[in-house]
Fold:
Amino acid sequence: MIRLYTWSTPNGVKISIALEELGLDYEVIPIDIGKDEQFAPEFLAISPNNKIPAIVDGDAALFESGAILLYLAHKTGRLAPTEGSAGYFQMMQWLMWQMAHFGPMLGQVHHFLKFNPGKSEYAEHRYYQEALRLYRVLNDRLEGRDYIVDEFSIVDIATWPWASRFEFQQIDLDDFPNVERWYLALADRPAFQRGYAVPNENWRIPRP
Ligand SMILES: N[C@@H](CCC(=O)N[C@@H](CS)C(=O)NCC(=O)O)C(=O)O
Structure:
């Protein structure tokens, strides 16, 4: 059975949502990053960058949520276009966009606007403007589309949890109607609701 090392954060729930969508059995090992459990030697042996999520599946131990999602798609042959096809590289492109931008930059928004307001006006402005820019990019991409690429895929699963923090980011989803439509449609999926409540069963999907 897959062991999932996780905590209730956007990066963590990406993997529980994917596992729920795929119907795979998994055991949850909560790593309380508020109590520095990510620095325990047993966890660092799996995730040397001291971050959740990570998985162990037989001989495979993986950290970095994008790599884990690709692994799960490969393992099951689901949630991704055919490997090597044009659609596959479209998916990879947007997955890289999420991992490099619509995650790290929004993480900075959480840090400066939500958790440390007033510490740096410059950083608050810089990262909030970047958040607005990224939401515009996503909104444009979703014009006339149900999903980020032609089919529902791990890219939707990677991106959606970061949009679920719209309140932290002071983002009004009404300003990004394509994102809002996509966000609410995925929020209605039972697997998203189950995956969102891992490991904190009290976590409920926020609705604008
Ligand atoms: N690029 C990584 C980022 C993972 C990440 O930032 N995890 C955070 C929680 S969302 C964490 O474990 N932080 C603990 C720490 O930095 O010590 C991924 O996508 O897996």
